[in-house]
Amino acid sequence: MKKLFLLTLTLLPALGFTQSKMSCCQVSSASSTEEFAQFSTDREFVQSHLDPIPFEYKSEIGRDVMIPAADGKEAHIYEFKAAKPTNNYIFVIHEWYGLNNYIKQESEKLYHALGNVNVIALDLYDKQVATNRDEASKYMQSVTEERAHSIINAAIKYAGTKAKIVTIGWCFGGGWSMQTSLLAGPQAAGCIMYYGMPEKDEAKLKTLKADVLGIFAEKDKWITPQVVKEFEENMQKAGKKLTVKSYNADHAFANPSNPLYDKESTADAYEISLAFLKARLK
């Protein structure tokens, strides 16, 4: 099994490389998710994330659900069911801290903002929730592509063959938002990725059925403007629709616990994301 050196963030110090010496775009042997996972070995990347502030959250309508997965293990999701039967689904993929209360709250916020829709927050950490950045680094490195794919496919099966699925994720979850849309095949209706590692394999991109909204940060030292430019070029070659919105901000600017949190850019990106989602969940 391949260790999923998740995408959000540069190259192995053990090999003597640092982000300044080699860009993440120069790695050709690793998958995009593995590439992002390698950021967890970059101390600058780890230190750029503050430990999340403890936050109590309790929803009257959200519920934890365990669903069967093809690898024989159960998968954990947090679900908000639509008030009326609908085939519209939003899959939310957490950032590197895991499926914590912040992600659950954000999922409920989307649920209320978009009207009658099912929202499923996927848990790629199997109920492990990081309370600090060192735990987050460890959990992110422990993810394998095989297990992540099994969890995602279980959620797709749970939603049903008639489900129209849009995906959204941040950082680690930004890259996995794209991978989830790829796995959803013809059921994929839209993909939003916040400063996550894009898929670079043109052959894979050609199989993508969903339009993509990429939200990036111009000051990002990991998902750099060069990475974004390459993504735009690859999507164009693959004949896919990509909308890019870049802000004069730093990586993880939409995370309130980030010392470089940008409230204005976050609000603007949220409105753009809502418009994108609404247009694809008609």
From TrEMBL:
Pfam families noted in UniProt: DLH
GO molecular function: hydrolase activity
InterPro entries with a match to the protein in the record: AB_hydrolase_fold, Dienelactn_hydro, Dienelactone_hydrolase-like
Keyword Hydrolase among record annotations: yes
UniProt keywords, alphabetically: Hydrolase
Superkingdom of source: Bacteria
Ranges for domain Dienelactone hydrolase: 84-279
UniProt protein name: Dienelactone hydrolase
